[in-house]
Amino acid sequence: MKQLTREQVAGRKEKAERFVRNVLGDDERADEIADEDVEDYADRRHFEIINPAKRRNAEMASKKELEDRIAELEDENADLNDRLDSIAELVGDGDDEDADDDDDLDDEDEEPGE
Predict the structure, then answer these.
(1) Is-contact 59 42, C-beta < 8 A?
(2) Helices 27-35 and 6-18: crossing angle, nearest 10°?
(3) Residue 98: DSSP 8-state
(4) What CA–CA distance (Å, rounded) separates 45 from 92?
(5) pTM
(6) C-alpha distances in angstroms, 13 versus 28, 33, 52, 54?
(7) Which end of the chain has fewer surrounding CB within 10 Å, N or C?
């Protein structure tokens, strides 16, 4: 379970709402996310809301805490990569076709005998 401050959870909730509304185009689901309490959103997403003062007051993080943080960041990175993949699928990847079109234009610009 990821440990986040209330502000971090609220930020993720807002980002999720914008993603669903702007990328997925699902206004109804985005409204549901917007209306959801931060605590309910955290529970649904398996986030634990923590007191940020606890982390600031710790003099030194233990190896276990650092490993947990690394795992949390890796999970978050994987989640963001999944979102980017979803966006790429929605947008489509037309780079290959554009490259072929550019090659055709170069051939047309050449004069016979070159």
Answers:
(1) no
(2) 160
(3) H
(4) 28
(5) 0.46
(6) 15, 7, 18, 23
(7) C
